[in-house]
Structure formats: C-alpha cells, structure tokens
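lol so apparently i was supposed to do this last week
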Amino acid sequence: MVSKTKEITTLIKNAKKEARAEVKKTPQEEAPYTGPVKWPVNCIVGPGLEGAIACESKIGYVNGSKGELIYRGYDIFDLCAHSSFEEVSYLLLHGELPTGKQHERFSSQLLHCRRVPQTIRTLMGFPVEKMNAMAALRLGTNLMRQESTYVDQEAYRPDRFPSISADEDSIPMETRPRGEKHAIYEFKEKKGGSKPKEVDKKYGPPVGFTPTYRLISGVATIAGAVERIRRGALPLEPDPDLSHAGNLVYMITGRRPTPIEERIMDVTLILHADHGMNASTFATMVVASTLSDMYLAVGSGIAALNGPLHGGANAEVLKMLREIDDPKKAKGWFEQTCEKKKKIMGFGHRVYKAYDPRARVLGPLAEYLVENRGSDEIKRLYATAKELEKLAIARLGETKGIFPNVDFYSGIVYSCLGIPVEMFTALFAVSRVAGWTSRVMEYLENNRIFRPRAVYAGSFGKKYVPVAKREE
Ligand code: ACO
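anyway here it is w/ acetyl coenzyme *A bound
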C-alpha cells in the first residue's frame, strides 16, 4: 500500500516546500492568536465577529498571513504526508498521536461504530431522494441520536445545572457607541463548572467520548446511505477490511477504491478535519455550550456548513467552472464577474490572507487525478480552474489577500473519485465532525454558555396603537 501511494506523499511534500518558499518571499506577520488567554480579554471586533476571541483552545491554529494550519502542534502538510484520518481524529480528540495499542483500540471502536443499521432503516422511510444531501445528513444525525441514546426518556433527563446561567446581567459588557472601532468584552473569572466527569455522570449515555466516536464513524455511513438512496440504490454495509476513507468511497460509489483513491480520500479527510472557530464549528459549540447534546450540536454544524459562503462553496465551484466551461472563456467571465462585484467561489477567506495550505495540497492532487484518469469534461474544468486561479491571483492576491481556499480544488478531486457534486459538502461534514466534536469536548471542560449581545439601534418610547387605528 505504502509503495503504491508513495507518489501522493511526494506530491504533498513538494506542496509543503512550495508553500514555505512562497511565504519566505513575502513574510507577513499577523497578530499572534496564541495563548494562553487571560480573561477578560480586549480585542478589536469587526462585523461578523471578526477578530473576536471566543475561547482558548489547544486543538488547532491557523496563521492566516503565513498560510499555516496546525493540528495539536503538527503541521497539516506533515499529517497529510504521513498520517491517516483515524489517527488525526484521535489526535484532535485526545491531544496526542495514538500509540500502536491506542491506535488499534480506537480503530476497532470506529469499526464498531461504523454500522448504524437502525438509523439507516429509519432514514429510508423519509423522502431522502428529494432532499438536499446536507438536509438528509442532518436528519440522519438526528435519527442516530435516537438509535444511540435514550436521552429523550425521562430516566436519562439531566439534573439542572445551577451554576450555568443565561442571565444577561451575568455577562458584564460594555459596547462602544456605533461607529467606533471596537467593543470591550469582559468575561468573569470561571467559578468551578461542569467538568466532563461530572457531566458524564449526570448525562448518562450521550456525553463522554462515546458519542464522538459514534458520530465520527456513523456520519460517514449515513453519507454513504444518503447518496445511495438518492439514486435509488440500497445502502451498503461498511466493509470491515477497509479504512474509514476506503469505506467512505465504497459506501458512496459502490466500488472498492484502489489504494491511490483510498489514500487521496484519506488526505482530503485530514485536510478538512478542523479549522479554528469557523462558522460551523462555532455553531456546534454554541449549541453544545447550552448543554444540549453532541448529536444536536453536530446537526447544527452540518446546517451551518451547508451555506455557499462556507462548506457549500465546494459544490458552487464546480457549478461555476461548468458555467465558464472553457479556459479560453475564463478571462471574459472573470472580467464580467469583477465588474458586477460578484464573488468568485472557492476564493477568499476570513483568516487566510495567503494561499490556503489545504488548497496547496488539493491543487496537485486534482492535477494528478485529472492527468491519470480525468474525463474530457473534468480535464477542461481543471484547465479552466487553473486559468481562473491565475487571473484571480493577479488581480486580487496582492491587493486584497484573496487566494484559492480549500473549496477551490476539492470538487475536482471528489469528481475524479466518482463522487457526485451533490455530495461534496456532505463529505466536508463527514470529516469536520472530528473537529466539531473535539472542540466541543475541550470547551465543555470549562463550559460557559455563549451569549454575546447585539447593539440596539432601534427607537424607544413608541406609543401602542390598536390595529383598527393603524394606517394601512
Ligand atoms: N471573490 C472576489 N472578491 C472577494 C471574494 C471572492 N471570493 N471574497 C472576498 N472578496 C472581497 C470582497 O468583495 C470584499 O471586497 P471590498 O472590501 O472591496 O468590499 C473583501 O474581499 C472582503 O470580503 P468579505 O466578504 O467581507 O470577507 P469575509 O471575511 O466576510 O468573507 C468569505 C470570507 C465568506 C470566505 C468570502 O471570501 C467569500 O464569500 N468567498 C467565496 C465563498 C467561498 O469560497 N467560501 C468558502 C470559504 S472556505 C470555507 O468556509 C470552508
């Protein structure tokens, strides 16, 4: 297996060299978002919570100006070159790479959790074929909650948590008047709180690491079933001899992947596993911070990821490339798009102002697959993407820090693996479950409900007028 996939490892190592060489050419520094945080913290907050510090984390770090992505201290390029999704999930959840024994045990736990027959049976009773794949995935996650927990039964209801409060007065905060540049958020020192063990005891089955394993493994099986049901086929049982990545390709396409395909899917899973306080991670954490449960929290992550400004962009990119259709038409299309001030899908990022390291890996993987097995259509779309990249970087790279992001090339990679466009964002979710659940577990150690404020800009003192007297 290793020798067969050696060329993929070489591509990744070369991508790392290219990334590092480019950063050396244009070294830029950004405010280091590195800890530890001493609360209360002052930060300059822009619209969309840009710059706001929501919590401290040891899970992952994105350096936007250097184009660096770190999981638990390890460079993403090194993890892609040498690791697997199973190992990376363990790393994100538990803080260290697993030893041989831990790896064996974790893999067998994932293997055990990969089968969710009751969930799939129930899912088949819904009109999945008429649903958006992400809506179906979210539904499946909810059904899995019913299969895997007894949380809605009276005996498992949690005790109240007296120390947790949503009372606005417990969140001292001063906002500057509208128009001024920053707001100061002040967090109280934490007084004890709900440590995981306590939570475990009170919450029974749905809390602790068990749901995280079930979700990391089970959501992939649900994604496979969703695609099969969508095209009128019966869902497939996971194959115990295949890895997580191998199973994913198998359960979606019905074809056991070659070692190269399995390795490439594994790399895409590693690349998408975690990425700081992005919208879907934040959504997941907000739900978890209310001490709801992991399944509902992950369902919220799936919902947030679906949007075209976030994970949904990978499908939009392929649609965009199909619309342009030919590298020769890229220039005209690009000019028109800029003129209309429309965004180019798969470009730009709130944090990266340099080339996204994930796109650095996915670009060469796309090229490799296109050259080795691409259809005429995908070859044309890849050439169109390369042309668009050149044009967009020349116009927007230096001036606005806009470069390809993770979604620009992932769709071409997925297409070459036989994954339909409707499933692209679901694949992103399958991977990101590892990051969502890891961050929730970490946050719950010192949980405080997320509860920001809005600045009221409306009027005061209006007199109530009965409906009959209101002017039409
Ligand atoms: N194409 C052209 N211009 C862009 C793009 C783009 N893709 N992205 C940002 N810009 C420009 C904006 O027009 C704006 O210009 P202005 O200052 O002249 O008005 C400036 O860059 C800042 O843009 P914002 O939208 O304010 O940036 P923000 O940080 O809020 O948004 C986002 C980041 C949502 C990712 C944005 O770049 C975008 O919409 N990209 C396209 C969708 C996409 O690919 N999303 C996937 C992101 S990766 C992920 O979530 C997994």
